[in-house]
């Protein structure tokens, strides 16, 4: 546990470059690659390969902004910390409020995704019936029954919350191990697929579908863009990374580069073995069906192609869940430390040295979000991420203007082209998403607006409480709360 020049306790820098990189990759290489590939092929045909490549390029523009800001402002909290540095109090609060919620909602989604995949894994090895045949557990005290899948989702969240609350180093190590395992699984998938006779006779022509042509790429990009969200999580743990001014930008670029390579290899093999039409017909089970088609049977532990994909899905959801538990708590911790949430949220535990209260607060909302419809929760998370990316690109432009001589160990090339392109492209995707929500998912739009309004009320309430403390009334201002002793 360390302290700054003012005696304020700071998190220990216990994570290396590999750990930081794995946090980004763990969040990005989630269940998306397993379920979105078939859907992308259905829309864009063999050009699904180009869809993932172009999304990687689009994502890189905002990645450059995150890298420069992280090198200039080495503070935990991700986009919130950057916006706090250059925008006014209300703007930074709303940015943190949106990011915190987006990470917590994403955590609920990953937990719900983990449950059926884990049940399917038990089913593959004969330890449980098929997921759709698993019942519920009776709770006599509440006179209710809870589905097994919901219980597993709660268990996954609580287990990773406990791990994160006890040790930042341990949670980082788990993220590294789990991410390496799932990347290894995808490498096995690619290797068997590339060497199979099916791939040697692959047909990638015609590249574009007859209906839509090259323009079919655009809706497919919108569908799969969520698979590239995650590198931004690296900046939420900046102060817990060794030499952050250099390692955070490196981790952002490494995680993006490796993720794009993995995605392109997986999609190419899937299209090359099952064919775009076969992949499209398989839909969300496209990767699993492709693996079943060319993977040998009777392998030790793996047994068959379907089993290896189930393994990958289980590890993918767990690593993504662990990453957002880390990220959500660090955003809340940063806001508490800045006096924009309750001061206890911005303090480190006297024994564990972790943002204990921030982790627990994030867990409560995450567990409560399990009750939301899955599609609505996913849409809300995507909307808040896109909005935050727009603001972060604006922050790098404003910081360049207002502090041109500020120390920036990393400066993006061709400034200001990348952040401007980042703003424009994310605005387009935001507009498309809002239009989609108005037509198909008004609940997500209503809940999103409701969360922003709730944030406004919280902001006003905290300001009033802080003012009362400063003028001698009841309560204590956030910046007057003493830090705990080491």
TrEMBL record:
Membrane topology of the entry: Multi-pass membrane protein
GO (cellular component) term, any one: plasma membrane
Source taxonomy: Archaea, Methanobacteriati, Methanobacteriota, Stenosarchaea group, Halobacteria
Localization per Swiss-Prot or TrEMBL: Cell membrane
Keyword entries, A-Z: Cell membrane, Membrane, Transmembrane, Transmembrane helix
Originating species: Halorientalis regularis
Transmembrane segments: 20-41, 47-69, 90-112, 144-165, 177-200, 212-231, 251-271, 308-333, 354-374, 380-399, 420-438, 444-462
Keyword Cell membrane included in the entry's annotation: yes
GO molecular function: transmembrane transporter activity
Alphabetized Pfam families for the sequence: AA_permease_2
Name of protein: Amino acid transporter
Superkingdom per UniProt: Archaea
């Amino acid at each position: 546990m360390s302290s700054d020049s003012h005696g304020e306790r700071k998190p220990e820098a216990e994570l290396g470059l590999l750990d930081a990189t794995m946090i980004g990759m763990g969040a990005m290489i989630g269940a998306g690659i397993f379920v979105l590939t078939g859907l992308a092929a259905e829309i864009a045909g063999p050009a699904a390969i180009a869809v993932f490549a172009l999304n990687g390029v689009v994502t890189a523009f905002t990645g450059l902004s995150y890298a420069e800001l992280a090198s200039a402002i080495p503070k935990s909290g991700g986009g919130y910390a950057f916006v706090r540095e250059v925008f006014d109090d209300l703007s930074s609060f709303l940015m943190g409020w949106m990011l915190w919620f987006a990470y917590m909602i994403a955590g609920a989604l990953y937990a719900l995704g983990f449950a059926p995949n884990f049940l399917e894994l038990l089913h593959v090895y004969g330890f449980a019936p098929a997921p759709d045949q698993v019942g519920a557990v009776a709770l006599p005290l509440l006179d209710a029954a809870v589905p097994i899948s919901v219980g597993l989702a709660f268990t996954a969240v609580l287990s990773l919350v406990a791990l994160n609350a006890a040790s930042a180093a341990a949670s980082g190590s788990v993220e590294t191990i789990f991410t390496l395992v799932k990347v290894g699984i995808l490498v096995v998938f690619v290797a068997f697929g590339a060497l199979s006779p099916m791939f040697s006779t692959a047909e990638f022509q015609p590249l574009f579908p007859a209906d839509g042509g090259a323009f079919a790429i655009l809706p497919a990009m919108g569908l799969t863009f969520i698979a590239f969200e995650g590198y931004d999580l690296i900046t939420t743990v900046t102060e817990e990374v060794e030499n952050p001014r250099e390692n955070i930008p490196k981790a952002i670029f490494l995680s993006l580069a490796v993720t794009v390579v993995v995605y392109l290899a997986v999609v190419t093999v899937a299209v090359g073995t099952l064919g775009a039409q076969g992949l499209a017909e398989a839909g969300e089970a496209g990767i699993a069906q492709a693996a079943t088609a060319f993977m040998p049977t009777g392998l030790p532990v793996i047994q068959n192609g379907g089993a290896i994909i189930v393994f990958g899905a289980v590890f993918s959801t767990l690593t993504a869940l662990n990453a957002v538990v880390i990220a959500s708590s660090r955003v809340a911790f940063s806001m508490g430390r800045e006096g924009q949430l309750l001061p206890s949220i911005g303090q480190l535990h006297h024994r564990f040295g972790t943002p204990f209260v921030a982790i627990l607060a994030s867990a409560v909302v995450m567990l409560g979000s399990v009750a939301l419809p899955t599609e609505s929760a996913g849409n809300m998370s995507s909307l808040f991420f896109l909005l935050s990316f727009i603001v972060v690109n604006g922050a790098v432009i404003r910081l360049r203007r207002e502090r041109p001589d500020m120390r920036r160990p990393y400066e993006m090339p061709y400034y200001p082209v990348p952040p401007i392109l980042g703003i424009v492209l994310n605005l387009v995707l935001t507009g498309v998403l809002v239009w989609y929500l108005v037509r198909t998912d008004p609940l997500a739009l209503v809940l999103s607006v409701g969360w922003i309004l709730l944030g406004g009320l919280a902001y006003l309430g905290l300001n009033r409480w802080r003012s009362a403390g400063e003028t001698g009334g009841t309560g204590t201002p956030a910046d007057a709360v003493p830090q705990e002793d080491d």
